[in-house]
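Re-run with default settings, no changes from the original entry. Doing this only to confirm the output is reproducible before filing.
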Amino acid sequence: MTMTEEKTAPVASPDFHRRRWTSRLRRWRPFLVAALALALVVTGIWLVFYSSVVSVRGVEVVGNQRVSARLIENAARAPIGTPLARADLSAVQARVEAIPAVKSVSVSRSWLHTIRIEVTERTPVAVVTRDPGVPGAVLQAVDLDGVLFGSYPSRPAHLPLIRTGPAVTADVLSEAAKVVTSLRPDIAAKVRYVDLTSIDDITLQLIRGPKVLWGSAEDSGEKAQVLAVLLTKVKQSVQQIDVRTPGRPTTE
């Protein structure tokens, strides 16, 4: 080699560097993708379960007609400010179900900031007084389950009156409710009140008409049919109709 000869070193081409980084990126790509996915999952969990970004900010009440939305909202005591995903919906449901006029409740999350409360109200079939001898005694609605709820200053024209004692239970009231709902509307309109002494001792007092011994709520549909027929045939002097055994009714 002469003095004039110059030593040369190989110089990596740009394509070589690109291929080398591409190869490294290919090897690291699964780890980068996993790290990114983990970061997204952790961020999502934090946003949903621990941050105020997706928190409870209000309540939506649906299905109510007689029970005010404000009463339901106050009873629900929704955890305002709590992350929606962590809100205790069972506790909200239990508090709303404690309202006597509410029959059932469905509570759900309405993303991003609302608790949705769907209520089914009790339907009144009669009004009940548990102090029939006391003027101005409280009148309460009763449904087919025998549950008392609400109050009335006076008897609504479309609801029959049930008179009973203060110790009456829901089971007994339910029997009387079944009786009044078994009556045809035109017959029900003739009932002044229903006396409820026990589960087997239910009596109807008609307006300008006889007393009707009904017994229990068993066979109420058949008893109602028999009574409707008898009322077209009996004389005004009849004081009492007994349909406790609908196959053998009697009059006095």
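The first helix runs from residue 14 to 50. The longest strand covers residues 102-110.
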